[in-house]
Sequence to fold (459 residues):
Amino acid sequence: MLAAALRKELLLQWRTRGQMMAVLVFGATALLLFSFAIGPDASALRTFSAGFLWLGLLLSSTLTLAESFHSEMENRALEGLLLLPSDPRALYYGKAIANWLQLTLLGIALVPVMVVLYDAGTTQLLKLLGIIILGAAGLSAPGTLYAGMTAQLKAKQMLLPLLLFPLIVPALLASVKATSLVILGDPMDQLNAWITLLAAFDLIYWSMCGLLYGRVIEE
Amino acid sequence: MKDLTIDVEQVARRYGRRWALADVSFQVPPATVMMVAGRNGAGKSTLFRVLSTAIRPDRGRATVGGFDVVRHREDVRKLTAILSHANYLYEALTAKENLFIVADHLGIRRDGVMGVLEQVNLASRAEDAVSTFSAGMRKRLSFARILLQEPRFVLLDEPYGALDPPGFDLVDEVILELKRRGTTILMATHQWERSARLSDVALVLDQGRVIWQGPASEALEHEPHAQRAAILSTAAGGAR
Fold:
C-alpha cells in the first residue's frame, strides 16, 4: 500500500514539475533578500548563511507542502482513496516521503545560491548533504500533517505556517546549528550532538504524525 | 457470512443548525436496486455519504452488509463503492493512470484497467489527461472506477448527470450488469422514469425525512416534484 501511495505521489510531482522550478526561484529570491538585509558585510553574511539557507527552505516548504494537497482536494481525490479503502498511514507516509524528497532536492539546489551570495562554501559536502536530508525530513513530516489538516480550510495559506513554524523550531534550530558548524568549522566537536538531536526529533515527528494523520483528515 | 442488506435506523445528520437527515429508517434487501428520489436538498447525497462512511451520522445507526458505518468503517469500505458529485479523479493524470492508482490501492492487477475503460467507451482516451475531459467523460471514468472495484454495494448519486443520451444508455447497461452480478444498488437521480424502470423499490425523501417507500413502479405518484415534472412533460407533449 505504501509503495502504491508513494508511486502516485511521485507521478503527481512529476506531472506538476514546473511548479518545483517556481518554488526554487522563490527560495533563491528569499536568500537574495536576506543578503540585502545584512548589507555588504561579507563576514556577517557568512556567519548567518546557514540560518538564511534554512529560512529560505522553510518559506519554500510552505508552498510545496500546501501544493501537495491541491490535487487531492480538487475533486476530493483523497476522500476517494480513503473510501477504496486505503490505509491513511500509507497515504500519509507516501506523501511525506515524496515531500521529503522534494524538499531535499530543493535544499541541495539552494546550496550553490548560498555559496555564491554569502561566500559560504565548505569541503564537507557529504556532511552538508546528510544535514539537508535530516532537516528536510524534520520539515516534511509535520508539514505534511498540517498541510493535510488545513487543506480544506479557506485560510489554509495563513494557517499552515502559523501551525507549522512553532512545531518545527527544534528541528530548524538543530539544522541551522549543524549547517553552521559545517560551514564555519567545529572547534568544540559539537556537530554530532546537533545531528543526533535532529535525528531524534525526526523520529518523533515521523512516528507521531503518521499516527495522527488518519484522525485529522477523516471526519 | 455477513448480512448482505443495508439497514438504516433513525439516522440523522446535520450541517450547522440544519438537519440534512432527520430520523431516516429503511432497509434494502440483497441484490436490490433502490431508487432514492427527492428534490434538491432532500438529503439524498448526505444519506449516500453516510452509507459510504465519508461522513458520520450524528444520531442513529446504519449497517452495510452487516457492518456498522461508524464502528466498522474499513469493512464497509471494502464492500461499497460510491459515485459521488465529486469524481475523485486526479486532473493532472491520464484516465489510465487514475485507474492504475485505484488498482494499486485495491491490491488488484492492473490488467483489468483497459477492459473497464472499453466498457465505458473511453479506451481511445486512456492516455489523455483528465483535465482535458468533458464532464460527461469524467462521469464515465468514475463509472470505470466503480467497475474496477467490483463492490457488493453501489451508491450512485446522480449517475445520469452531465451525460449525453448514449451515456444514459451506458449507465443503464452498467446498472443492469451490476444487478446481474447480484450487487445492491442505491440510486439517487432526477431521471425518475428511467430510474423507476431499472429499480425494484423506491424511497422518497423530503427535507431529510422519508415520506414514502414502496415499489419503484409506484414511486412517481409519491414524489411531488416528479409529479409536477410529469404533468409539465405531458403538457409540453400535448402542445406539440
In short: Chain A has a mean pLDDT of 94. Chain A touches chain B at residues 1, 3-5, 7-8, 11-12, 15-16, 71, 74-77, 79-86, 219 (CB under 8 Å). The CA atoms of residues 24 and 106 of chain A lie 6 Å apart. Chain A is about 85% helix and 0% strand.
